Amino acid sequence: MTNKVRLGIIGLGTQGSMYAKFISDGLVPNMVVTAIADTDPAKADVVRETYPDANFYEDYIALLESGDVDAVVTTVPHFLHPQMGIDALSRGIHALVEKPAGVYTKQVNELLAFAETVPELSFGIMFNQRNNPLYRRLKEIVDAGEIGDIRRTNWIITTWWRPQGYYDQSEWRATWGGEGGGVLVNQAPHQLDLWQWICGVPEKVFSKVAYGFRRDIAVEDEVTAVVDYGNGATGVFVTATHDLAGTDRFEILGDSGKIVVENSKTATVTRLKKPERELSETMSMQEVGKLFMGQLDPTEFYSTETIEFESVWGDQHSGVLENFAANILDGTPLLAPGSDGIKGVRLANAIHLSSWTGKEVSLDFDESEYLVELNKRITDEGKFPVRN
Predict the structure, then answer these.
(1) Eight-class DSSP state of 78
(2) Number of domains into which the chain is organized
(3) Of 51, 75, 170, 220, which has fewest CB within 10 angstroms of its CB?
(4) CA distance 101 to 190
């Protein structure tokens, strides 16, 4: 292999075109696009004119068997990612799947199980927000115990406003059979990943979800979920696609500090001088009175740091592509291993299942039960075949 990975892009839509441009513009120095596949034959002219060094295929299997590529990225509808990943890996081709890794855990677990049989191949997922320097820094702070053990997490992310026309532009969009869900599988997978990547995986979830609440769609456009981490800590996740003003606020409360992130841009980190319980047990009522009246210097109890990074458009996605290529070339650890793709899908499935059953759901739920419920909704739509 040369010092550049030969990449095949499966699906030349918005994402696929963006990745092709990043690479052709030199933002991913260890990667070159050598093949592109798309079911739309008209894309052949686009490839010929824009990426003349890349061969075009209408069938992705033909691309995989062409000998043109070392690796592929799957920028296609969510349901297709697992099988395409398996098809690539089974032919000795490294695979980077777009988020989410799939729609339901059964199909994603099949992909993960196959990937384990070919450990010599690189298998990643496009969680580009893990390459956001702000969230990478916050994970370092939490992992180092700088705010102590987590006691509560909250993320309200409603900056996904979508008008009805957005949903009407494609027959598959916002359907159970075509897309597999709404805001949880389309707009919010990055937050579902970051929430668990930084704060840990919960054990249970109870949710209230509205389907077609403010839009004429079958899937969810409003979600409120409460998770239980199993150690007394809880978390809340709120998301929607009908809030025109939108809010993005992420809080992590620990027993020795707190992190507040606004607009995925600025984080305020508070570090207590002593654990909160110790302050509670040792502070006199006279000191409490002075604190409430603003007569005590708060820096005696905690320090505050503001963290903000410049984030150039394209850096996060191109960084994941570069990291994926580096993993292939020299074994550099992956920012987002493909095995992590199950976590967001599992949580989204559990949130759906809780709302459908009206019960708290363990993250170790019966994936067959979820698939049965999903297929009921696909059948009711009458537009797409059921899944297995």
Answers:
(1) G
(2) 2
(3) 170
(4) 11
Q: Reduce the DSSP state of residue 259 to 3 states and report it.
A: strand
Q: How far apart are CA 56 and CA 43, in angstroms?
A: 8
SS3 106: helix
Return the structure tokens found at 282. 């040792």
How far apart CA 41 and CA 34 sit, in angstroms, is: 18
239 & 349 share domain: yes
Residues 99 and 159 in one domain: no
Q: Which residue has the tokens 């209230």?
A: 208
CA distance 240 to 208: 12
pTM of the entire predicted model: 0.95
User: What are the E-state strand segments in 229-301?
Assistant: 234-240, 248-254, 257-262, 266-272
CA angle 226, 230, 234 (to 5 degrees): 35
Give the tens place of pLDDT for each residue, 312-363. 677 899 999 999 999 999 999 999 999 999 999 999 999 999 999 999 999 9
Residue 85 lies in a domain: yes
Give the range of the structural domain holding residue 204, as residue numbers without chain letter.
131-311+344-381
User: Which two three-digit tokens encode residue 312?
Assistant: 């150039």
Dump pLDDT digits (tens) for 207-225: 999 999 999 999 999 999 9
Burial category of 297 from C-beta neighbours within 10 Å (exposed 0-12, middle 13-18, buried 19 and up)? exposed
| Domain assignment present for 388 | no
Go through 73-87 and write b for each residue having 16 or more CB atoms within 10 A of its CB, e for each that does not. Answer: bbbbbbbbbbebbbb
Residue 333 located in a structural domain: yes
